[in-house]
Each structure stands twice: as C-alpha cells, then as structure tokens.
Design goal:
Helix content is 23%, strand content 29%. It is α+β, with helices and mostly antiparallel strands. It is globular.
Length: 180
C-alpha cells in the first residue's frame, strides 16, 4: 500500500530551508523542485531581463523581478524565471510574498515537463496575470498566453509586444535569442 504525501500550505512551505534558495515551487499543495537549467537558459533569461529593465527604466510603469516567488493562494506558490509587477502593485512593500500572480509571468523552458508548464500557465492566468510569455530557446520561439484565453506563437522574424500588460513595449523575437 502506498501513502500519499500530505498537502502543504504556503505558510508551511515557506518554513522549509530550501525555499530561501528559490529552488522549489508549490502547486496544489505539492512541492516541485526547480531543475537546473543550464547556461542557454540563463543567457536567454539575462537578455530578456536586460531588454525589460531598459524599457521599464524609460517607461516607468513597473519593475522586473528575477525568480521571485508569488503566493497565489494557500496551496500555490510559483517562482517564474522573470516577472513584471506594475507600479500599482508595488506598494505597500511587506516581508511576505507578493500576493497573487505577477502582471506578466515569463518562463524560459529548458527541461520542464509539459504538463507542469501548462499547469503553471493556467495558474498564473487564474490568479491575475495579464499575460504569460513562454520562451523556448531551442526552437527560438515565444508563446504569448493572454488573460482572454488567446495564445500565439511568435517565430524569430516576428515582434514581441507588451499588449495590455506593457503598453508600447516591443522587441524583435530574434533579440531575445541574440548570441545563441
């Protein structure tokens, strides 16, 4: 007879020593490790972070965060590779995790299982993200998932736009993969 692991709340999850390293996520009360992704993953994340930071420094509507954990509800805590919070969500600053999903969640795919990735996209959108960008370095494509349920895949010759979450933002998809 097998025994199922007990479900965990975010408060219990935050007491684990590994959580401080940002290497775990909590989905439906179950702990999932964030696997080592490699240098290509880190390079794409760094490039996209640089693009977003530069744009946000000129268009002061929010801030970009790297691997910040968000409390979605009592049994869901996710840490996207990159995220953006609009200014209206930046105050008050507390010692607790940000509540709800980020305005924009960005996942750079390396080895993540497809079913968990789809679950994370669904959770980000359910808990308030206006968009989720899923970046695939190997294929050099970006999938844009909108809160209205629409999804589109952008090839390297297309332009990534901020739409509702970052009005006026645009960058060539190819720029995200520069140097690969």
């Amino acid at each position: 007879m097998s025994t199922a692991a007990a479900r965990m709340t975010v408060d219990e999850f935050l007491k684990l020593p590994e959580v401080e390293c940002g290497k775990l996520e909590l989905i439906d009360g179950e702990i999932f490790p964030i696997e080592y992704a490699g240098f290509v993953h880190a390079r794409v994340k760094s490039t996209l972070n640089e693009i977003l930071v530069l744009w946000l420094s000129q268009n002061r509507i929010g801030r970009v965060f790297v691997e910040t954990t968000y409390r979605l509800d009592s049994e869901e805590a996710l840490a996207p590779d990159l995220s953006v919070l609009r200014n209206e969500r930046l105050t008050p600053v507390t010692k607790d995790l940000p509540q709800g999903a980020p305005d924009l969640a960005i996942e750079v795919v390396s080895s993540q299982k497809a079913d968990r990735l789809h679950m994370k996209i669904r959770l980000y959108l359910k808990y308030g993200s206006k968009a989720v960008w899923v970046v695939y370095p190997d294929q050099r494509i970006i999938q844009v998932n909108s809160a209205n349920g629409r999804a589109m895949t952008l090839e390297p010759d297309r332009v990534l736009e901020g739409l509702d979450v970052l009005p006026g933002f645009s960058t060539p998809v190819s720029a995200v993969f520069e140097g690969l």
